TrEMBL record, chain A:
PANTHER family, per the entry: GLYCEROL-3-PHOSPHATE ACYLTRANSFERASE 3, PHOSPHOLIPID ACYLTRANSFERASE
Species this protein is from: Coregonus suidteri
Record-level GO cellular component terms: endoplasmic reticulum membrane
Membrane topology: Multi-pass membrane protein
Protein name according to UniProt: Phospholipid/glycerol acyltransferase domain-containing protein
Pathway note: Lipid metabolism; Phospholipid metabolism; CDP-diacylglycerol biosynthesis; CDP-diacylglycerol from sn-glycerol 3-phosphate: step 1/3; Glycerolipid metabolism; triacylglycerol biosynthesis
From TrEMBL, chain B:
Identification of the protein by name: EF-hand domain-containing protein
Principal location: membrane
Compartment(s) of residence: Cell membrane; Cytoplasm; Nucleus
One BP annotation, GO: protein transport
Pfam families: EF-hand_7
Classification of source organism: Eukaryota, Metazoa, Chordata, Craniata, Vertebrata
Length: 482, 203
């Protein structure tokens, strides 16, 4: 009996070994080596095309399902935000509220229902406002067959469920082990390679090798995420001695950008595995790692970065001026610190395709490990990178204005919303002014002021106060005599 | 390992729901769907910057758009019961539940209690906006206060008083120089409250 068992065990063992060998040769032959030299076998693009077809089919199926069963909640084409906002101006809204009044004083004067307008606007802002919207993941109109993005899609059809089930199996049993192995290989090679290069004395050879090592590792890591990256306007690629700024969505941004060029990273020095990686990277070419205590001293930070930029042979610094991860639908306020360093700024816009996986790292909800796991079990990461023409600070511009100019350029190129809602509104005085505007608008409806032109109205989609162009004619409402 | 993969795949919705105590009861009571509750919870956490599990009036005051609202303070006040200085998540959701649009598909069952988002509840909230001392009547002084908030520097005191007089004259049916809830309701019976005083979640 035991002989048989042992024989069986040996067979299993040899089968396992053979499988492992096949696995490794596939990996190295088909994925790693082409990746290292920047070539592509075209497998990923075929995969993406198949995926798109499947997702389109799924969308049609879901839409059909909704038409057949209208009691299911139908997701509308989503503008930003959680709630539906009435798009009218204050006059329109109040006018509608007052429509019930049939008496002759229906124009002008005060109606008990007037307060409803302010009340509902106030409640809407409690439930949802523009700033916090940017810190939650963009929601898709249609389901992309990942369980985690399934909020309101109930059971539609058996076929859809089967495809979803297959998807789960493929993602977890085929793609995930592949990606993890690649990631581990990539990072290990990064540490070993940079340490080896660090031993070289010669400047030019060392730099060339260091760039090669970095590129190879990032390419392997990118394959480890099934990332398809499309670079546009490569002629504007950041040069040595410059500063590269980009919008921030996730830690993967670094891998995305570093696939096409070498950058000097800026960040806090960590302990543990990150620390090992950081220390070895520094051995082969200068990066800028700060101790936690140094980070607080803004002047120290700026001067160190300035010194790095001044040495024209150093790699361009990579900075994310937003300071935190945003959900890739807009660009938020750029911190002006990065723009005080001087030198040429090379703006880069990064836009992820949300159909294949949600790249946004919501650091409040998920920790890094959880996030990486989610990345590695998504379908793929498809991303567009635009290099914008370099910009420098103009004569009369201060750092904040320059920062805004760069931000607008990036937002415009990437098709992201340029959020101008910035910290200046925290000043109480500005809030008072806005409140007064609202009161002015309202009073013109109640008491009536001749020639009063309200300059503000509420934007339809975002609920924002925006300046209105053109004069608005008001009837002059009179208070009826007793 | 399997559990971990499961949590990754399912995302945060289910884990968020499990963080909230008595969430089933809350959904029953308020009529919010799980997706709505999760959104509101995220919103609550975002407002609760110091992670105390409660919101204070200052946390609401931090919302820019609300601070610019002429009656912003009163709206904030609606969330806090008299004497209470904090509001927890359940109360937050319960109050917002009043402003859900009416369920068109709900069968009219006289034995079931009226849902919280019916027309009367919405009107009651609007009434309490005016009736700050909660004596069941909107006095002339209370009406003046609301008018002052909404109009501030833009009109004179006489104009304000005149408006208040006229409004009370119109609505006050029993001539007690104040507007009771019934008179308030009657005065607004033609307004489409459900349309105008509802917050519609997109999903």
């Amino acid at each position: 009996m035991t002989d048989l068992c042992e024989g069986g065990m040996e067979d299993l063992w040899s089968i396992a070994v053979v499988l492992l060998q096949v696995w490794f040769s596939v990996m190295i032959g088909l994925i790693m080596i082409p990746a290292m030299f920047g070539l592509s076998l075209g497998v990923t693009s075929v995969y993406i095309q198949i995926l798109v077809k499947i997702l389109e089919w799924a969308t049609l199926r879901i839409e059909r399902g909704h038409r057949e069963r209208p009691t299911l909640p139908v997701p509308a084409t989503l503008p930003f935000g959680l709630i539906q906002r009435e798009g009218g101006s204050m006059e329109q809204e109040m006018g509608e509220l007052r429509r019930y009044r049939t008496q002759s004083i229906s124009r002008g004067e005060f109606a008990l229902s007037d307060s409803f307008y302010f009340y509902i606007k106030g409640l809407e802002s409690i439930v949802d406002d523009q700033v916090t919207q940017r810190f939650s993941s963009e929601e898709l109109v249609s389901w992309n067959l990942l369980t985690r993005t399934n909020h309101n899609f109930h059971f539609i059809s058996l076929r859809l469920t089967i495809i979803w089930g297959l998807g789960v199996i493929i993602r977890y049993c085929v793609l995930f082990p592949l990606r993890i192995t690649l990631a581990i290989i990539g990072l290990t090679w990064l540490v070993i390679g940079t340490t080896l290069v660090g031993f070289l004395p010669n400047k030019r050879v060392k730099n060339w090798l260091s760039e090669l090592v970095h590129l190879m590792c990032y390419r392997i890591c990118a394959r480890g995420l099934s990332a398809t990256i499309q670079y546009h306007n490569k002629e504007n690629k950041p040069q040595k001695g410059g500063i590269c700024v980009a919008n921030h969505t996730s830690p993967i941004d670094i891998v995305i950008l570093a696939n096409d060029g070498c950058y000097a990273m800026v960040g806090q020095s960590h302990g543990g595995l990150m620390g090992v990686i950081q220390r070895s990277m520094v051995r082969s070419c200068p990066h800028v790692w700060f101790e936690r205590s140094e980070m607080r001293d803004r002047n120290a930070v700026t001067s160190r970065l300035r010194a790095h930029v001044a040495a024209k042979t150093n790699l361009p610094i990579l900075i994310f001026p937003e300071g935190t991860c945003i959900n890739n639908t807009s660009v938020m306020m750029f911190k002006k610190g990065s723009f005080e360093i001087g030198g040429t700024i090379y703006p880069v816009a990064i836009k992820y395709d949300p159909r294949f996986g949600d790249a946004f790292w919501n650091s409040a909800k998920y920790n890094m490990v959880n996030y990486l796991l989610r990345m590695m079990t998504s379908w793929a990461i498809v991303v567009n990178v635009w290099y914008l023409p370099p910009m420098t600070r103009r004569e009369k511009e201060d750092a904040a204005q320059f920062a805004n100019r760069v931000k607008s350029a990036i937002a415009h190129q990437g098709g992201l919303l340029d959020m101008s809602w910035d910290g200046s509104l925290k000043r109480a005085k500005v809030k008072e002014e806005f409140k007064e505007q609202q009161q002015k608008m309202y009073s013109s409806m109640v008491v009536g002021k001749k020639g009063m032109a309200p300059d503000w109205t509420v934007a339809p989609v975002t609920g924002d106060l925006v300046a209105r162009r053109g004069k608005y004619k008001t009837d002059s409402f009179k208070i009826l005599p007793d | 390992m399997l559990l971990f993969c499961l949590s990754v795949e399912m995302g945060s919705t289910n884990s968020t729901l499990s963080k909230i105590p008595n969430v089933e009861e809350l959904m029953q009571e308020t009529g919010f769907t799980p997706a709505h509750i999760v959104r509101l919870y995220d919103r609550f956490e975002a407002l609760d910057k110091e992670k105390t599990g409660h919101l204070r009036p200052q946390d609401f005051g931090a919302i820019n758009r609300l601070a610019m609202n002429p009656i912003g303070d009163r709206i904030i006040g609606a969330f806090f019961s008299p004497g209470q200085e904090t509001v927890d998540f359940h109360s937050f959701v319960r109050i917002l539940a009043h402003f859900r649009p009416a369920d068109k598909n709900r069968p009219k069952d006289p034995s079931m209690p009226e849902p919280v988002n019916n027309r009367t509840s919405k009107l009651k909230f609007a009434f309490q906006l005016y009736d700050q001392d909660k004596d069941g009547k909107i006095s002339r002084a209370e009406l003046l206060q609301v008018l002052r908030s909404m109009l501030e520097m833009q009109v004179t005191e006489e104009q304000l008083e005149s408006i208040a007089d006229r409004t009370i004259q119109e609505a006050d049916l029993d001539k007690d120089d104040a507007i009771s809830f019934e008179e308030f309701r009657k005065s607004l019976e033609k307004v489409n409250i459900d349309h105008k005083m509802s917050i519609r979640f997109l999903r």
